[in-house]
Specification:
The longest helix is centred in the first third of the chain and has 25 residues, at 6-30. By secondary structure, the protein is mostly helical. The protein has one domain (47-206). The chain contains 8 helices and no strands. Helix content is 68%, strand content 0%. It has helices at 6-30, 44-48, 56-78, 80-103, 118-130, 140-153, 160-179, 185-206.
């Protein structure tokens, strides 16, 4: 990684500050009280999905990896512009989610979970105990995870082992959202759409790739 200029160091600080604020906005909408009953977007497939509480492991690792580890790897391996694309895509993606949460709030009613294993206990007391059943569509976990997958995909030739391990781990987070009954299947599709829109939009604005046909 090339030595950063003072301006670039300020940019790194502001992007990480923006990521922190993006998480704060998620929490604000997740703990808000609404004058209407949030929608339940449950489909026939959701009825058949069981609770598999071992998925709490990738689910809980999400914020540390997506908000800190992947942006730092993008900076170190990909360079300053790759970092900007990754970090700003998270911020822009969250802003898109916040608009949905503000005008189209959804919920996923809790499913009773018998605490038969340590993973069940973590699900009920750590996740369900600290996270309201709101902010369903699109999924925040899916959006940030797919942004991270795209960022690591672009680093796969420079750091193949790290990139493939992290991409595989983030892929686990997508089914974790439904296997923990935190989301419905439609929320995954919404999160993927937001992630691709935010990431590729930021990439074209920041990196300005040459798309001329030779």
């Amino acid at each position: 990684m090339k030595k950063l200029s003072s301006r670039q160091k300020l940019g790194v600080f502001l992007v990480f500050l923006g990521i922190v604020l993006a998480f704060v906005t998620y929490e604000i909408f997740n703990k808000a009280h609404y004058s209407y009953e949030p929608l339940i977007m449950k489909g026939w497939l959701d009825e058949k999905i069981p609770v598999i509480s071992i998925f709490v492991i990738p689910y809980l690792s999400f914020h540390l990896l997506a908000a800190l580890v992947v942006p730092l790897l993008s900076l170190k391996i990909g360079g300053y512009k790759a970092f900007l694309v990754n970090g700003i895509a998270i911020i822009v993606g969250q802003l898109m989610l916040d608009v949905a949460y503000a005008f189209f709030q959804t919920q996923v009613p809790r499913t009773p979970v018998p605490e038969n294993s340590p993973f069940d206990w973590v699900l009920v007391n750590i996740i369900y105990g600290n996270d309201q059943p709101l902010n369903g569509f699109p999924s925040n976990h899916v959006t940030w995870s797919v942004v991270s997958i795209l960022a690591m995909w672009r680093l796969r030739t420079r750091a193949p082992r790290t990139s493939w391990i992290l991409m595989g781990w983030f892929v686990l987070i997508l089914p974790a959202t439904v296997f923990l009954h935190q989301h419905y299947v439609i929320d995954i599709y919404g999160g993927i759409f937001v992630a691709f829109s935010a990431y590729w939009g930021c990439m074209f604005l920041i990196e300005k790739p040459n798309l001329k046909i030779r």
